[in-house]
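A common beginner's mistake is to predict each chain separately and then try to dock the pieces by hand. The better habit, illustrated here, is to supply every component at once so that their relative placement is modeled jointly.
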Amino acid sequence: MSHQIMSLKLKTLFEKNQKKMMILPILMIVVSFIFLITTYTQTGDLIDKDVSLSGGMTLTLYTEQTIDQVKLENSLKQDFSEISIRKLSEFGTNKEIGVVIETPEINEESIKLRITEATGIILTEENLSIEVVGSSLGDSFYSQMMKALIFAFIFMSLTILITFRKIVPSLAVVIVALGDLTITLSILNLMGMKLSSAGIAALLLLVGYSIDTDVLLTTRVLKNREGTIWEGVLSSMKTGLTMTITTISALGAAYLVSTSLVLKQMFAIIIIGLLIDVILTYMLNAPMLSLYAKKEGGK
Amino acid sequence: MAKLFGPRVLILIFFLFISLLMIDPSPLASGVEIKQIDSISPALEVGMVTGEKIVEINGVKIKDLTDYKTEIEKLEPQPKEIILETSNGIISYEVTSSIGFSVDSNLTIIATEDFVDIQPNSKLISINGEQVESPENFNKLKATLIPKNKVVIKTDKEEYAFLSSGNTGISVQAAKTSNIEKGLELQGGTRVLLEPQSEEEISSSDITNIIDVMNKRLNVYGLADIKIRPAKDLDGQNFILIEIAGATREEVRDLISKQGVFEAKIGEDVVFEGGKRDVPYVCRDDGSCAIIESCSTIGPEQAACNFRFSISLSSEAAKRHADITGKLEVNQSANGDYLEKPLDLYLDGKLVDTLLISSDLQGQEATQISISGPGYGTTEDLAYLDAVSNMNNLQTILITGSLPLKLEIVKMDTISPAMGKEFIKNAFSAGALAILVVGLVIFLRYRKLKVVLPMIITSVSEVIIILGFAALARWNLDLAAIAGIIAAVGTGIDDQIIITDEVLKKREFSLNWKEKIKRAFFIIFSAYVTTVVAMFPLMFAGAGLIKGFALTTIAGVTIGVFITRPAFAAMIEKLLK
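With all components supplied together, the output reads:
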């Protein structure tokens, strides 16, 4: 019984407050837009780029020896003005397995010397991985990824328009996807996360997942509706939330276990984005569709 | 079977079977297999073939690469000190498997290896106090300096025995556990992204040429397992992506920075350089002006051949030749009259050959020049092959000389091989955990193992079929591809949830199964198309480094939509009906 009461409550909540509940997601989108524009005018970029997009070196040193991070940083600071050091640890045991060093300045020889000097570890092909990206390539990578993101967005919007052949519902899907993107980007910026090229690919995947739940919603409410509009919303919410929760749990588990920083970042971005997508899909797209369906003569 | 599952499940089983066949997993594979055999080597002579598994060397069982290395090192002779007396002084150094230089018909030392520090144009006088009078004499002496040991190698096919002075000419690898090509992050190695620099527009044939030349050059240095491929980005900018496993960062940088600069000098003056500017024409693949000649046996297990081909010099280079030779004296000898200084050919600053200049060319603007050089081997056939390969290298370098385009290293990644193994282990445990978590969430939602099991089976099948496809297409499985597999399987699970819900939905009116599945697949198909169009631009962005991600995702969701998800729908239909 309580289940029924709950669902009845949800129903009245949804139907009475459709317009009000759209305020939160719209506000989030507007704020994130303003935030991103401000960031852009201040820094000249929408995101904080890591070395794969701005050029620089990433060195991963694998060692069982505990590394004195402060000492290492001080030693590296003598030659490199900007340096970031992160520890790598094994999941479960929390055993340290190495460090990742990033710097936008490219000088392999001197960084190797400094590392050996500070840690006493002799660097070999076995214990050290080095990735170097020239700054011109980093720049072109960034603009390439951004272009790909814009193209992908346009293609996806066209696909949605062709699928539903209705302007308002298609627009709603695009607004939600765009909102997911801007809000997630703003959160990443606030977290101070430096985005890699893989991170941008993750944003693209996120847009894909976001569109999936919206297509589900639009189909159940407009195309193949069984019962009332609310029933359509509720059934798609059940399915959509199961999808999102499964994805978030699987990626969350993989995030904890994975030692690859590239994959970790991708997982984190998708998890954050999916959480945002839940709010936007069911608090913005659902009421929009419901109002639209009513106007079109539904119940 | 067909009755139990229906055709869609049978199709899935069929593809699973094919994929396993493609992947050909042999997780228990151990030992060492032959990856490559040098074209001039004792191993090739006795008929060893790549792919054979080495079981024993000189009676010792070989279980892994370490065993192999230990046994091969035993074959190497003890280093011996030798003393060389040359026209430019006496030097001494240690030799193991190679003496480190060779001589031309006038006993001038040529083709020196890095460990031999000899001034150019030195004439060999004696080795360890023994006078060297002729090239034949030198070859005999060389044979005594580097003793050969008998090697018996037993493979899974046959037993081979030959004499070797350390270098057997075989490169090996750990026996493959599957047909999947492991990319950089999984096996370690170095990846280089090169950007050709040019004022003019770069055509795709320019890129093909460069790749061709680089392939030849990198092979000249005996590196196996190199992948070179062109890449482009959305702006049409060209790149060349090289992946080399098992080479150090320094080695790779060295190889690429070596532009293969060819210089022909008389004394200190450069007469011409390789490349179109000075050498507009190089005779190649034409028996009338590029030939192998005078093959002869010069000693026990020693044969030599000579190659000769003609090149044309530009008028400027010919004029330089005239100016430089005009100032030289003529030496008269029984073999004919030659100029006092020869024409020295340098490759990347290393003397490779010395040609005597006939006196009638003095002060002449010679536009036709004949280039010659030797090839050696234990038999005349092998010497012939060696001469052909030496000639090819020289021709390639003369033609391409200074590459038409400068190549700039814009990205260079080296991943330690130890980390590659760690990465695979990690990917497996992360994948297994993710599947477990998915199973748990699905169970909590539906409370039915009848839903959980088909879902797990479908997802695992999806991974296997993607891997099978990767093995078939010889795709590099790297980090980007793994991210693509995760993306594909992720959307797969979403789609399976949509199917399950559509099937389980309580309805006021009853829909038949076909209609339910149709409704589910409308959503799935729309989602599929949006994913594919989203990934499409990524295939062309990022100089080929992101391509693997986009391709794997597209392949994965396509396999999912057309093979595994219909099978899942069929399974669910059977189990829940």
